[in-house]
Specification:
Blueprint (H helix, E strand, L loop, with lengths): L1 H14 L7 H21 L8 H24 L3 H10 L17 H7 L3 H9 L11 H28 L4 H29 L7 E9 L2 E7 L11 E7 L9 E5 L6 E4 L8 E9 L2 E2 L3 E8 L17 H16 L13 H5 L3 H6 L14 E9 L2 E5 L6 E5 L6 H11 L6 H7 L9 H20 L6 E2 L4 E2 L5 E8 L9 E5 H7 L11 H7 L1 H10 L7 E6 L2 E3 L4 E6 L7 E6 L6 H12 L10 H16 L11 E2 L5 E3 L3 E7 L6 E2 L13 E5 H8 L1
Parallel strand pairs: 9-14, 16-22, 17-23
Antiparallel strand pairs: 1-2, 2-5, 3-4, 3-6, 6-7, 6-8, 9-10, 9-11, 10-15, 12-14, 13-14, 16-19, 17-18, 18-24, 20-22, 21-22
Organism: Calypte anna (Anna's hummingbird)
Protein name: Ankyrin repeat and fibronectin type-III domain-containing protein 1
InterPro entries: ANKFN1, Ankyrin_rpt-contain_sf, FN3_dom, FN3_sf, Ig-like_fold
């Protein structure tokens, strides 16, 4: 077999230019090749090729050269070039796991020369070891054959160079001799590396935790010593017996970016033992048992058998909305507006009549009243009218109701942008109910319809958490929406935000800016808020801090500016599940009827670290934390991947009343949101 491989190699040498005579020559070769890949491969004129077949043939030629360049880079231990090629081409294009004429893969060469950085780069790209090496003996025999045949080739070429007179053919043979001498040294180094290596030590920090009522999570780190050979895979084994006899299952991990594994399909309430071992080219190393030695799949809900808080809620609300629509389907409120009683018309302001006029346009200036403005943005551009104004429509020019109540109602309506027409029909102001509140909300729906019609789009985005006001009596309700596609809108165009800010001529004084000027000055802050409010937390268990403050017409909640849709928080750990045993411990700690054991409790240690970090974050002295409490009624689950434990101040301090002194105010980086706005964002 090896003789045939060497024959193939010699034929390949005869068909193509001789190999590099030195590492420097090899570097020049694949540097030139990779330069061609970057430029020429993408610069061919489509019309310059005779046909698709020629283009495909040329493409395959470049990919073959890229494969050769990768082997050269690995052999010469050029990490930068290896990373460059892996970034430039996919594993399939590089033939990353196709053996060369010597039966070797790039990963084999990196491992046997003990080049850990290159081996790790190849492993992360999906590289495998050669399937030909089914045993230590086969690998040793293969390497010995490569060394012997390379030595034989060197001896043959040496004899030819010594015995032949100097000529062109002799010069060519000298180049081949240098290339084979270099390859002979490479194979000897690989053979020595293999013989020197030993199996790896056991992985370290093998930690076992409960992932759910039917799974456990094992995490680990690579061994402290790999004994001169890179670890290429790990084996996770589990059993119901501490002696692992009989074993229940095992899993091989060969994707080494994240060293963790979730064992699924387990029986709740059963103890499972886990151990992990590492593998290199010399075989499997000794296993390392986990800490703790076993885990019992469970979930905190099993403590008292409670169902998830939100189970079926979305379906129930959809069903309820369907019922409401059915009831209103033939209601008198679905009659066109022209059929309203005559007295209804007199109660409508002139501005509302203007909304129905076919020539309705965006407003250019504000006159004391309540308005709706929609901010659509893409990258650093914003949508403006043809007069370079942010789109604004009027809601009410004689507004005199309770703003916060109407504003919070508007934020709920923003969850139903596509139902505005139906809502308008259901909130018709009749003669018997012409209250200020109902009329204002009807006008809000009309303004939304007008904005949707002028822009040609239904979804106006997310409502900013507070209206923009000025001293002239103008109030702007602001919606924000990021456009990620090349969407077209009516009556508007894209303009860079900086250009709009610099070109706008203010009609107000710096001391008393108008609501529009205030909006334009602070538009970047509002866009940043909108982007941050859509960010999601990474999977894990978090410790949240609940702090409220009340005003005359609302309750507000403290949140971080970087994640305004989440309470102030720190991460406890990456595993979001709280097991039944952990929850039982938390219940005992909350009641203090029976002081729980803490010395060996891993959750206790994690909570200690998290509480210190959280107190520092919100600027509360650590000694004050002794009066704080953990919310022990439930774990707050946000989907399957994120959960929260809540830390509460003393009951009298959970919500700060107006005028109440709060000695510990958070540092910069926080804001307070109306509770209803926070609840909408959290959804």
């Amino acid at each position: 077999k090896m003789t045939q491989q060497m024959r193939d190699l010699q034929l390949a040498q005869a068909r193509k230019p001789p190999g590099p005579s030195s590492p420097n020559a090899a570097k020049r070769l694949y540097r030139n090749l990779s330069g061609k890949f970057r430029v020429n491969y993408t610069s061919f004129d489509e019309g310059s090729l005779a046909g698709r077949g020629e283009k495909e043939k040329l493409r395959k030629s470049y990919l073959f050269q890229s494969n050769a360049a990768l082997f050269e880079a690995v052999e010469l231990q050029d990490l930068d070039k290896v990373q460059d090629l892996l970034k430039q081409y996919s594993p399939e294009e590089l033939d990353l796991n196709t053996p060369n004429s010597e039966g070797l893969l790039p990963l084999d060469i990196a491992i046997m020369t003990n080049n850990a950085p290159i081996a790790r780069a190849l492993l992360q790209a999906g590289a495998k070891e050669s399937p030909h090496f089914v045993s230590l003996e086969s690998r040793s025999l293969h390497l010995s054959t490569l060394v012997r045949e390379a030595e034989q080739r060197v001896n043959e070429l040496t004899a030819q160079v010594v015995n032949e007179a100097p000529n062109a053919d002799c010069s060519e043979k000298e180049k081949q001799l240098k290339a084979w001498e270099w390859r002979y040294r490479l194979y000897k180094r690989m053979k020595a590396g293999f013989e020197h290596a030993r199996v790896p030590d056991a992985p370290i920090n093998v930690h076992l935790s409960v992932a759910s009522s039917s799974s456990v999570l094992v995490t680990f780190w690579e061994p402290l010593s790999v004994n001169s050979a890179v670890v290429t895979k790990y084996k996770v084994e589990w059993s119901c017996s501490p002696s692992f006899s009989p074993p229940l299952g095992e899993a091989i991990i060969d994707k080494l970016q994240n060293l963790h594994f979730t064992i699924q399909g387990l029986v709740s309430g059963t103890a499972y033992y886990v151990q992990v071992s590492a593998y290199n080219m010399k075989g499997w190393g000794p296993p390392q048992t986990s800490t703790p030695p076993f885990a019992i799949p469970s979930n905190w809900r099993e403590y008292d058998g409670r169902a998830p808080r939100r189970r079926g809620q979305a379906e129930a609300l959809d069903h309820l909305l369907g019922q409401v629509k059915t009831v209103h389907q033939h209601c008198v409120c679905h009659e066109p507006c022209k059929n309203q009683p005559q007295s209804r018309k007199h109660s409508v302001s002139k501005s509302l009549k203007h909304l129905f006029h076919p020539g309705s346009k965006f407003l250019k200036t504000l006159k004391r009243g309540l308005y709706l403005t929609a901010i659509f943005y893409k990258d650093d551009n914003i949508l403006v009218t043809h007069e370079d104004q942010i789109p604004v429509v009027e809601i009410d020019d004689t507004y005199s109701c309770l703003l916060m109540q109407d504003f919070l109602w508007f934020t709920k309506v923003s969850c139903m942008w596509d139902e505005i027409l139906w809502l308008r029909q259901c909130v018709t102001v009749s003669q018997s109910s012409c209250s200020c509140i109902l009329q204002t909300r009807f006008k809000m729906l009309l303004a939304i319809s007008q904005m949707q019609g002028l822009l040609g789009i239904q979804d106006l985005g997310q409502v900013f958490f507070e209206p923009v006001k000025d001293k002239q009596g103008n109030i702007l309700i602001v919606t924000l929406k990021e456009v990620k596609t090349n969407q077209t809108f009516e009556s508007v165009r894209w303009v860079p935000i900086c250009k709009l800010q610099s070109s706008r001529k203010s009609v107000s004084s710096p001391e008393e800016p108008s609501a529009l000027d205030t909006l334009l000055i602070s538009v970047q802050d509002k866009l940043a808020y909108h982007q941050r409010s859509s960010h999601a937390l990474s999977p894990g268990l978090y410790l949240g801090y609940l702090k409220l403050c009340s005003a005359v017409d609302q309750i507000r909640v403290l949140v971080p500016e970087q994640l305004p849709n989440i309470l102030c928080h720190v991460k406890i750990r990456s595993n979001p599940n709280v097991s039944r045993e952990e929850w039982e411990w938390l219940q005992k700690m909350a009641s203090m009827a029976e002081p729980p054991e803490t010395s060996q409790n891993h959750l206790f240690q994690e909570l200690q670290v998290a509480i210190k970090e959280l107190m520092t974050l919100v600027n509360i002295p650590l000694q004050e934390a002794k009066d704080f409490r953990l919310y022990s009624q439930e774990v707050l689950d946000f989907g399957d991947q994120v959960s929260f434990l809540l830390l509460l101040p003393p009951s009298d301090d959970v919500c700060t009343a107006p005028g109440q002194n709060n000695p510990y105010t958070p540092r910069s980086g926080f804001l307070t949101l109306p509770l209803q706005i926070f609840e909408l964002g959290e959804e």
